[in-house]
Write a structure and sequence with these properties.
Elements (H helix, E strand, L loop, with lengths): L4 H13 L18 E4 L1 H4 L15 H13 L2 H4 L3 E3 L25 H11 L3 E7 L15 H11 L3 E5 L8 H14 L5 E4 L1 H5 L8 H7 L2 E3 L8 H13 L1 H5 L7 E3 L12 H13 L4 E3 L8 H7 L2 H7 L8 E6 L2 E7 L6 E7 L7 E5 L11 E6 L5 E6 L4 E5 L3 E9 L1
Parallel strand pairs: 1-2, 1-8, 2-3, 3-4, 4-5, 5-6, 6-7
Antiparallel strand pairs: 9-10, 10-11, 11-16, 12-15, 13-14, 13-16
The structure holds 2-acetamido-2-deoxy-beta-D-glucopyranose (4 copies).
Length: about 400
């Protein structure tokens, strides 16, 4: 695999420049590293018929069962502290004072009681609303009720708000999302603010105002919802790879690009593809919101979600979003600077899905490593230490179809 040196140097120059931007981020003291938690949407959707699907139905008991597992299985202690309810938690109508109410059949104790339970477990509660007239699934939206809803959430003890953008005019979103941010601030309760706004305006350059996103939101969705498949997963990775210089410049402590939930432990990815998602979400400094049934997790999926090397890369205090250095012939290399001087995370993805493992001979320059005489590598999945390698030496990597090889490289 031969690469143009000029191209690589350009990529590296940009890699080390990002992060020197002066754009202000939302100042609510939250999300200094990418937020971590669990979110119901990708796995449990809008399943509301509890007769038909008692095990998967969105109820307060489902949420409590996930909270219990977050604690007993070690997810909370690894950093996954937010437990976030998505669309379909509400009753179809507001009450006679205009306040939101939870569905009385599925959430009979109400959200305040659920928040108390979640807090008693050392977790934080997230909730979902929509900026428009109705949510994406047709429940009451926050249009005309932004201030009242912000106060309701604060009174209930909510710690995170995901504000979606269905059934709304894209031209109103800047004003509306900023207003909701102000209302949340005025409640006096620090509430992590997740915005879907950028995803709704991503194809309209004039409305794609990243300076405003960063000032208003802790975390924002840029692109399509993730579905439970490799094609969906890779389309998101490729979107980030293709738009990286715009996106990465705005990521950092307090504000993060959000490529959507982790589908590890779902039905659609092979074990190798699950490694790709966890590896790449670490590389991209992405928020880590698992969406799986924590009552039923395969050991390999659990080990990935709790992998200490990957979580350390994701949570690195420097907060740099990794960049794709090159993509050639169904292979790509990504690089993320880490806070330890000279230390980098490097990912090589084989996106070819045909048959056999492939062999790559790559030089340190092709991996984007800075020129030092010798360096060591730690394989993040096996925790095996290798080295020292000479800078002049090419290294052989054998990578399975739709899989990833990922290391932390540091000067020896
Ligand atoms: C739930 O599903 C059952 C069985 O399919 C059906 O009979 C019932 O009408 C459904 N209930 C609601 C509220 O849709
Ligand atoms: C509200 O905004 C001010 C100014 O940015 C900030 O200092 C304060 O911490 C915010 N409070 C909350 C609860 O977010
Ligand atoms: C952002 O991306 C667009 C489209 O690819 C490009 O024209 C523009 O120059 C980029 N802006 C920055 C600051 O990189
Ligand atoms: C690099 O690896 C060598 C041999 O495996 C070891 O002696 C050395 O301490 C390592 N250097 C660092 C910085 O970890």
């Amino acid at each position: 695999m031969k690469l143009s040196c000029a191209f690589l140097q350009l990529s590296l120059a940009i890699l080390y420049q990002v992060g020197h931007n002066q754009v202000l981020s939302l100042d609510n003291g939250l999300a200094l590293t990418p937020p971590m938690g669990w979110m119901h949407w990708e796995r449990f959707r809008c399943i509301t018929n509890c007769t038909e699907q008692p095990n998967d139905c969105l109820t307060e008991d489902l949420i409590k069962s996930q909270a219990d597992k977050m604690v007993s299985e070690g997810y909370r202690d690894a950093g996954y502290v937010y437990l976030s309810i998505d669309d379909c938690w509400m009753a179809k109508e507001r009450d006679n004072k205009g306040a939101l109410v939870a569905d009385p059949i599925r959430f009979p104790s109400g959200i305040k009681a659920l928040a108390d339970y979640i807090h008693s477990k050392g977790l934080k509660l997230g909730i979902y609303e929509d900026f428009g007239k109705e949510t994406c699934q047709g429940y009451p939206g926050s249009e005309f009720y932004l201030g009242q809803d912000a106060q309701t959430f604060a009174d209930w003890g909510v710690d995170l708000l995901k504000l979606d953008g269905c059934n709304a005019d894209v031209n109103d979103m800047k004003t509306g999302y900023e207003a909701m941010g102000e209302f949340l601030n005025h409640t006096g309760r620090p509430i992590l603010y997740l915005c879907s706004w950028p995803a709704y305006v991503q194809k309209i350059a004039a409305l794609s105002d990243y300076t405003a996103f960063k000032k208003t939101c802790n975390q924002w969705r840029n692109f399509d919802d993730i579905e439970d498949s490799w094609d969906s997963l890779y389309s998101i990775i490729d979107y980030y790879g293709s738009n990286q210089y715009n996106l990465s410049a705005f990521a950092g402590p307090g504000s993060w690009n959000d490529p959507d939930e982790l589908i590890i432990g779902g039905f659609g990815l092979s074990p190798n593809q699950e490694m790709v998602q966890m590896g790449m979400w670490a590389m991209m400094a992405s928020p880590l919101f698992m969406s799986l049934d924590l009552r039923d997790v395969q050991p390999e999926s659990k080990a990935l979600l709790l992998n200490k090397n990957l979580l350390a890369i994701n949570q690195d205090p420097l907060g740099k979003q990794g960049l794709r250095l090159w993509k050639i012939n169904k292979a790509e290399v990504w690089s993320k600077p880490l806070s330890k001087p000279g230390s980098l995370a490097v990912a090589i993805i084989n996106t070819d899905n045909q048959g056999a493992p492939r062999v790559f001979h790559l030089s340190p320059a092709e991996l984007g490593l800075p020129q030092v005489p010798k360096y060591n590598m730690t394989n993040v999945f096996t925790n095996k230490h290798d080295g020292p390698y000479m800078f002049s030496q090419s290294i052989k990597f054998i990578i399975n179809p739709t899989s990833i090889y990922m290391v932390i490289a540091e000067p020896s």
